[in-house]
Specification:
AB_hydrolase_fold; 9 helices; binds 2-acetamido-2-deoxy-beta-D-glucopyranose; single chain; Rossmann fold; serine esterase; alpha/beta; 25% helix; 13 strands; 2 domains; 3-stranded antiparallel beta sheet
């Protein structure tokens, strides 16, 4: 009977959004903005938040919910400590995976679950007075996939990201128009592309964007049999391509960091890959590490988002949040819109309105119905 009562109480606590020891409760927000796929928005705002608070988007795994991630991840407690707001999006899809496969969700302002989430950012800025330069994103498994997707599709909105056991943005892309489709080829680690190819997959998700991409940490377990460990390599190649780093030659490798058996490879200020030996699906959330990476705690913060990451040597832990989003443009010719697409650039595909000719000696090759590339 006592056990039954405890279970019932636990259930009631979850239902009411209460978690013992927190200063506030989980609240649902409706009508936050355009939300074509009906993504749920749940918010944990501590009783006391900092002026112009930071926001962390914390995105749940398949079968999870906003409520489950709220009570099962450390971010609400950390919000109480550091005075930020946590937003827990809740998947509208059956099985509650995130749509990281449709053309819409993988394209800037084109719809899908990513678009609904992106519109929670403006709501948080206007309603909570949130700092636009300190909107962070993290997630586990399907939520980790969505975190990579948000960084690729809405790089303008997010300041830094932390990814627990996901796949590269675009790796779950469906070539058959699938929404929220499972992609076994990617899950099983059989999708492999070069850094340059992944970088152009990312750029094609927000054509014409010349601003900075969020610094990102990628965690993955070596014993992951849901999303095979090869996916860490693809994530690293993807963002190394975007930032201009060499995915094959990390600048620094730290053994037993942050935990015994974890190896942290630092490719540059904007990218870290953390391989967790013997860990399956998913890597446990390293809340304190996230607090450092997002700049709430000294020691290892991501640099303020800026262009030209490969040559940036910013290592300050105090400037994050005080900088305004950069307005400089990337100077590499590959990202400058021209009437002719350059090597690796998109040159066709459904919905493509840019240049369809390629600069010599490259030719436009159809990779899938949505994407042709100068190769
Ligand atoms: C899975 O994704 C890859 C790209 O990562 C793509 O080439 C493949 O066609 C996708 N599979 C399906 C069934 O859509």
């Amino acid at each position: 009977m006592a056990h039954f009562t405890r279970t019932l109480l636990a259930i009631l606590f979850l239902w009411s959004g209460l978690v013992a020891g927190l200063t506030s409760t989980l609240q649902q927000v409706t009508n936050f903005g355009s939300n074509p796929t009906n993504v749920g928005m749940f918010v944990y705002k501590p009783t006391t938040v900092k002026t112009k608070p930071a926001v962390i988007f914390a995105i749940h795994y398949c079968t999870g919910t906003a409520q489950a991630y709220f009570s099962g991840s450390p971010y609400a407690q950390l919000a109480d400590t550091y005075g930020f707001v946590v937003i827990y999006p809740s998947s509208p899809n059956s099985g509650t995976c995130w749509d990281v496969s449709s053309k819409a969700t993988l394209t800037h302002n084109a719809g899908g679950d990513s678009f609904g989430i992106s519109n929670m950012v403006a709501y948080a800025i206007s309603t909570y007075g949130a700092d636009p330069a300190r909107i962070f994103v993290t997630g586990s498994s399907s939520g980790a996939m969505m975190t990579n997707v948000l960084c690729a599709v809405y790089p303008n909105l997010f300041a830094a990201a932390s990814v627990y056991s996901g796949v590269a943005a675009g790796c779950f892309m469906s070539n058959f128009g699938g929404v929220d489709a499972w992609n076994s080829t990617c899950a099983q680690g059989q999708v492999s592309a070069t850094s340059a190819q992944w970088a152009s997959v990312v750029r094609a998700m927000f054509p014409g964007y010349t601003g900075a991409y969020p610094p990102i940490q990628e965690y993955h377990g070596t014993a992951d049999t849901t999303l095979f460990p090869e996916n860490l390599g693809e994530e690293v190649k993807e963002w190394a391509g975007v930032f201009g780093y060499n995915a094959a030659a990390p600048a620094q490798v730290l053994q037993n960091t942050p935990l015994a058996g974890y190896t942290k490879s630092i490719y540059g200020p904007n990218l870290q890959g953390i391989s967790a030996a013997g860990v399956g699906h998913t890597v446990p959330i390293q809340g304190n590490e996230d607090m450092k990476w997002f700049g709430f705690v000294a020691g290892g913060a991501a640099p303020p988002k800026s262009t030209g990451g490969a040559t940036t040597t910013v290592s300050s832990t105090t400037t994050i949040g005080t900088t305004t989003p950069p307005t400089t443009t990337v100077s590499t010719p590959t990202s400058t819109p021209t009437s002719v697409s350059q090597h690796w650039d998109q040159c066709g595909g459904q919905g493509w309105t840019g240049a369809t000719a390629c600069a010599a000696p490259f030719t436009c090759q159809v990779l899938n119905p949505f994407y042709s590339q100068c190769l």
